[in-house]
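Feature request disguised as a bug: please show the residue count (246) next to SDR family oxidoreductase in the output. Example input:
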Amino acid sequence: MARNVVISGGGTGIGLATARAFAESGDRVLLLGRRAEVLEKAGVDRALTYAADLADAESVRGVAEFVGREFGTVDVLIHSAGGNGGLEPAAEGDDPLDAVAHDWQVNFRLNTLTAVLLTEALRERLASPGGRVLFLSSIAAYRGSGSGAYAASKAALHPYAFDLARELGSRGITVNVVAPGYIEDTEFFGGAIQEARRARLVAETSTGRAGTPADVADTLHWLASPGAGHITAQILQVNGGAERGH
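Example output, currently without the count:
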């Protein structure tokens, strides 16, 4: 039976690969993101799209109303929206403390608030039993990210997911987190990274290769399957062993 799948950040990278995996399984997919033109060009068969700023409560209310009209029940909710706050517009002025405050606020809006607001808006629409909520974290939540803000914003999803797993478990809903490492063919770095940096990231893995959006998408697809029905409140790392060091 076709399921209703809502994917934030569904227009590019991991979100897009995930949307294609579910659509190819015959599920109905809704792609969410900030850029309408990107969503419309995603090329996912029969997918619905809705452009919204998921860090804005009023915009998320609009998403919830749209989901209610088009889907009613949400079987799978996947949070792929977010990204590198360093690619957002910088703080105005040159005060260093203002720059720090801006960096942390931007990263938490992009990576934490987007997931929390969307989850809370759709909480009562999650299929009971059988619903799945899946968050995208990062290897940075374990190892840091240089500035701290991005890593912290991803790590904040972990306790939120654990609390949700407890709260929603009685309804037969599972909640899990996938934490990717270096994944190629995404917009995370804002373009191609330097070859030396890429080589260093690949060398940290035990598999000797970069991750792909399909690696993460396949993991998310499995976590949403009946076979993963007794797995909840877990963090699955998809990084070729890089988190363990090499």
